[in-house]
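Milestone 3.1: sequence recovery, worked example.
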């Protein structure tokens, strides 16, 4: 069958393709202000589908790795093991989604991909993202194929662990380069000004990185690393939508049963980190993603009629620009990891003196990892108490939580419960830094926004569902989900697929 032909012999009582789309770093608070300006796919999903403007991230570390792993597995970080984007394990720093042998091997639960194929052996599961950790985690362990943008090769990449990686179309795709030397201009400065209100292009707090300035236009040909800077522009998401269409045309149209496609749009996050959520650049990326999503929905309708379902959400929220918060009278700041390291190390030295190696293994904000030399020292408790006292004295550190104090999450509440749900033995930091509201801890970001604290603006995200043949089901599912950990379960339950770790969600909605 040709890729452009409509699939034959499909069951009319279930969607033939389920698509889970993640807009990286999409907090509810910016969704609220932007949604009325959407005219493409986001607008269509709101008007013809169903949406919940706020679902909660119930754990303490709202980052890309944990977010995608939770969406793809229906498990918490304490269960699936992806506690952050980076952590220290056995004394060495490791990155999420870069496991030994297979990129997904760090996951401690299976998730959607395996369960999906058990239910629908004639279907396929494919994951696509602008980051490796997004693509490798968004559908759980063992999808048939994962593809992601790899900056060092200026194009899409895969891994031999995925059964479909040797397909001719995949080899052709991964040999192509993403054009990255162009001038990025907004489609309409007037619309961006209307969306941004009092926030001007070139506002305080926005970043200047590698010849990218605080204001449009941005000439990527003048940067030292255009293959990296292109990730913060709509060009990356266009590549990801194109890759999704190729995956559907080459793999998913001729299957016998329901398939699952995970798609993570990463440009929104890169733009937010450089320029902030309030910036014109971040909004321009969202507008173009909205446009691309509209075209993608039309593509799905062309090939599947009404028999498809799209679930759109995010992996985490974000903090408002520190400078905006200060201008409104709030005491806010960026707390640098190097300063945290210095304070913690000095406190340990005040008790124990000079170490043979190091007392502090590293600070991967907001986690402080202590060395084995310190933890094995007979005066460890005394030194740790000194570190806790000193770190609480750092400006805009509200609290420091000793993760070793947890024994049973069910006995905890509030922030400590959220931190406990983020704790996985051998991967979680020894001390967890809680910044004051509107401040955040940073391993290097000195501008733009970040997201690594259990405050509401970082842990509330929107959820949109569009299922043309089942609008009432979509509405029921959207209202039955109140946490991101529910998303995978609601999707799976609707198709009669059991998942590990939690009760079924959305069972009352049927399909």
């Amino acid at each position: 069958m040709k890729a452009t032909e409509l699939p034959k012999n499909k069951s009319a009582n279930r969607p033939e393709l389920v698509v889970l789309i993640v807009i990286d770093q999409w907090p509810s608070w910016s969704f609220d202000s932007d949604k009325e300006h959407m005219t493409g796919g986001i607008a269509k999903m709101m008007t013809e589908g169903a949406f919940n403007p706020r679902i909660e991230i119930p754990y303490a570390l709202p980052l890309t790795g944990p977010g995608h792993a939770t969406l793809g597995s229906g498990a918490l970080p304490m269960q699936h093991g992806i506690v952050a984007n980076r952590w220290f394990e056995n004394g060495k720093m490791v990155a999420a989604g870069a496991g030994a042998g297979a990129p997904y091997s760090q996951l401690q639960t299976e998730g959607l991909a395996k369960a999906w194929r058990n239910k629908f052996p004639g279907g396929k599961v494919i994951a696509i993202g602008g980051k490796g950790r997004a693509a490798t985690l968004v559908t759980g362990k063992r999808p048939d194929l994962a593809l992601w943008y790899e900056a060092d090769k200026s194009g899409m990449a895969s891994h031999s662990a995925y059964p479909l990686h040797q397909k001719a179309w995949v080899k052709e795709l991964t040999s192509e380069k993403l054009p990255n030397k162009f001038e990025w201009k907004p489609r309409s400065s007037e619309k961006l000004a209307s969306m941004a209100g009092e926030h001007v292009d070139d506002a305080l707090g926005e970043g200047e990185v590698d010849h990218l300035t605080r204001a449009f236009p941005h000439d990527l040909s003048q940067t030292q690393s255009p293959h990296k800077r292109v990730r913060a522009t709509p060009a990356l998401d266009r590549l990801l939508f194109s890759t999704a269409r190729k995956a559907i045309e080459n793999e998913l149209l001729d299957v016998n049963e329901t398939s699952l496609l995970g798609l993570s749009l990463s440009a929104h996050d890169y733009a937010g980190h450089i320029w902030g959520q309030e910036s014109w650049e971040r909004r321009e990326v969202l507008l173009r993603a909205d446009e691309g999503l509209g075209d993608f929905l039309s593509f799905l309708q062309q090939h599947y009629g009404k028999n498809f379902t799209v679930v759109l959400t995010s992996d985490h929220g974000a903090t408002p620009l520190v400078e905006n918060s200060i201008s409104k009278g709030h005491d806010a700041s960026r707390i640098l990891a190097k300063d945290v390291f210095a304070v913690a190390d000095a406190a340990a030295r005040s008790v124990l003196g000079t170490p043979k190696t190091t007392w502090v293994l590293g600070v991967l904000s907001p986690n402080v990892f202590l060395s084995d030399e310190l933890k094995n020292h007979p005066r460890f408790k005394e030194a740790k108490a000194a570190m806790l006292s000193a770190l609480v004295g750092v400006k805009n550190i509200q609290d420091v939580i000793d993760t070793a104090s947890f024994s049973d999450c069910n006995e905890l509440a509030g922030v400590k419960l959220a931190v406990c749900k983020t704790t996985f033995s051998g991967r979680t930091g020894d001390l967890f830094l809680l910044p004051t509201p509107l401040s955040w801890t940073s391993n290097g970001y000195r501008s733009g926004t970040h997201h690594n604290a259990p405050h509401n603006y970082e842990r509330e995200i929107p959820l949109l569902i569009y299922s043309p043949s089942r609008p009432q089901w979509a509405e029921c599912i959207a209202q039955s989900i109140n946490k991101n950990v529910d998303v995978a379960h609601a999707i799976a339950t609707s198709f009669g697929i059991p998942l590990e770790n939690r009760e079924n969600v959305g069972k009352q909605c049927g399909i």
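The chain has 20 helices and 18 strands. The first strand starts at residue 17 and ends at 23.
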